Amino acid sequence: MIKSFVLRVSVLAFCGAFLLTAFGCESKKPADPQPAQNGNRKSPIAIASIKHNSTYIKVVYGQPYRRGRTIFGEWEPWGKVWRTGANEATEITITEPVLMGDQAITPGTYALFTIPEPDSFTVVLNHELGQWGAFEYKPERDYKRMKFPVQNLETPVEAFTIQFSEPEYSMTSMTLKWDVVRVDIPIRFYGE
């Protein structure tokens, strides 16, 4: 009877551990100082999108707030890969080929990282989706890297914002704004 009880407890413990691991419920936490828990996020999810003829572009990102901090150069260090938002790495979906800056971009969904510098941001499209922040960023999975100039703003922007300008002559700009930094990324639609 004792052997039977011990066997049942061992089987239950094994099954419980298997289920926790199989369904991602292990106690391992991401290395983020402010991980999202139970959907209660300090930085809400935001979406920026644009549709022009048959081309649709959508960016999904966590929208952090400044909260009195100096962002670039302090909170987000110069020269370090940034998730371009908060929480999960930002993702961009493009349904038709476009030119981003002078780079041809094929349709797909990419992780969108940036590397801030005082005078420019390097925009990185990466094939590794579903990342938490940039903690496990792998440069060997990069698809494209492009550099765009920084514009310094006089009035700080409280919430990190990504937005698209209205299309004009088959062109739009994807703008990143936060704190006193603005970066415009020109995008040209093909076949228009």
* Low confidence ranges: 1-38
| Cα distance spanning the termini | 78 Å
For the largest sheet, list the strands in their spatial order.
1-2-3-6-7-8-9-4-5
Task: Average the pLDDT over all residues and give the rounded result.
Answer: 84
User: If helices are DSSP runs of H or I spanning 4 or more residues, what is the number of helices?
Assistant: 1
Percent of residues in helical segments? 10-25%
Q: What is the percentage of strand-forming residues?
A: over 45%
**Order of helix and strand elements from N to C terminus:** HEEEEEEEEE
Summarize the biggest pleated sheet: 9 strands, antiparallel
**Class from helix and strand fractions:** mainly beta
> Which shape, going by the Cα principal axes?
globular
Number of strands: 9
